[in-house]
Amino acid sequence: MLRETFVHIPGVGYRTEERLWRSGIRTWDDFSETSRPRRLPARVAHRIADEIGRSDEALRRRRHRYFARNLPSRDHWRAWPEFGDAVAYLDIETTGLSLGRDAITVVGVYDGSARRSYIQGDDLEELPSALEHAKLLVTFNGSRFDVPFLRKAFPRMRLDQIHLDLVHPLRRLGFVGGLKAIESQVGILRSEETTGLGGFDAVRLWRAHDEGDDDALDLLLRYNMEDVVNLEPLAELAYEGLRSLCLDGGFVTADRLPNRTGQASRDVRKKSERSGAS
Hints:
CATH class of one domain: Alpha Beta
Radius of gyration: 21 Å
CATH architecture of one domain: 2-Layer Sandwich
Mean pLDDT: 88
Strand order of the largest sheet: 3-2-1-4-5
Structural class: alpha/beta
Order of helices and strands: HHHHEEEHEHEHHHHHH
Shape: elongated
Number of helices: 12
Strand content: 5-15%
CATH topology of one domain: Nucleotidyltransferase, domain 5
């Protein structure tokens, strides 16, 4: 989808991008190989051509910061396949909701194959080095919660990845509620031990661990890691749903989305069932 994207170019909005797609210019290569579309001013065409060259070089060199900086934040989902081999699915737990008063207790990270938990008082300080090579960060509501807490805890950590905060693309696809509610809507299953647990339970479990309950920490880590790994099928759902709408349905508006997510939801449900059976 990244090579089919034009809205990261200054002066190109969604309607201009859609006009390019409708004229048969679906990719950067198409633009370079065809004559300037009608109704596209020459100065805009020159700007697009110049930026396509820079974009192509940035993608070939894997310069994720170029796209993190230039792509509108609502369109960071478009980079998911291209940078999915350097992804960090991430979720944090804290002692509460106050950024000024509360602290991070647990951070779960999943790169698509390996899972790792970082714990306050144990190895939490290793998190910045673990994220050094991540080019794509995937969270749920991370823009408002996880990332601000991480910036406070690690002021020197470079959180400059392309950031796919799934709250926003999933809202555009018609899904409402928090992470667990959306998981339920698409058929993602939780383990028996963690079903029904939520954010306040994570706070309670950490307090119990602080008071010497080792089982509480084990349950908290399992709960957190399920939050993390479940982001992967939801990222796929968001990407496939919005890509279909963008390229097949034109300019995306909220009222056009809900009826187009049924098949993607069924695919996520099947994947979850296969994972549970394996």
